[in-house]
């Protein structure tokens, strides 16, 4: 949890007032790109950034669809949401039972269930691996102008490749940000979280999130990854489009770091290191990237 909770408390109070909920004893869980607060009676509020109302709406709709499909996932409260408060979309959720961060095995098990579902009658939109990257690059003061221009150039190149990407597995509903941090392991089993990037697109995008932990950062062992591939039934690193999707994922991870390093000096070294890795200044991968937030 970070300590800069005061600015979002006013947003939380306004949203709770509009939704008929009590914010009196609310406690911050995590204040980052999204602010997460725990209310009383097992309710959690999620405050998104301005301009993200469509994503917040989609997140609630996907959660309700997954509930109807019997997929273990975080459950949205049964009220009209998101709630607009001081230009921020706010959503409300049932608090999870006691849990730990999920495992690679948990991730692939949930992905296999998700990817097998029929396409729902929802306005999911097509997958965009590059959403908000321009804003992240432009917003940071943690890197040099030369590095910023390079990141813009890398983004432009990847977008061009994406437009003519090779065919892969049949497209389906994808989570959009499928990694262990978005899975909660409970006594009853793993639960899928965070659907703001859920969309319709190539399932390889969800698989790449784990694959880059092997090929790019070294956070996943060869044994863990082999089990991941065996469970899902394919190895995305062998697909001809892997380099493109891995590059997009690496750019997302790097811009996330540089964005937050602008306000958190303790992360500047890690952010610069990630940029250096992408620019060929830090040797060959796998690199040892440290977690941000």
Would you mind describing this structure in some detail?
This protein is α+β, with helices and mostly antiparallel strands. It folds into two domains: about 90 residues, Phosphorylase Kinase, domain 1 (2-Layer Sandwich); about 180 residues, Aminoglycoside 3'-phosphotransferase, Chain: A, domain 2 (Alpha-Beta Complex). The chain is globular.
Strand order of the largest sheet: 1-2-3-5-4
Structural class: alpha+beta
Number of structural units classed as domains: 2
Please state the overall shape, judged from the principal axes of the Cα atoms.
Answer: globular
The secondary-structure element order is: HEEEHEEEHHHEEEEHHHH
Q: How much strand content do the residues show? A: 5-15%
Q: How far apart are the first and last residues' alpha carbons, in Å?
A: 8 Å
Précis, in short:
By secondary structure, the protein is of the alpha+beta class. The chain has helices at 6-19, 53-69, 104-115, 133-139, 145-163, 204-215, 222-232, 242-261, 268-278, and strands at residues 27-31, 35-38, 43-47, 83-85, 88-94, 100-101, 172-174, 183-186, 189-192, 199-201.
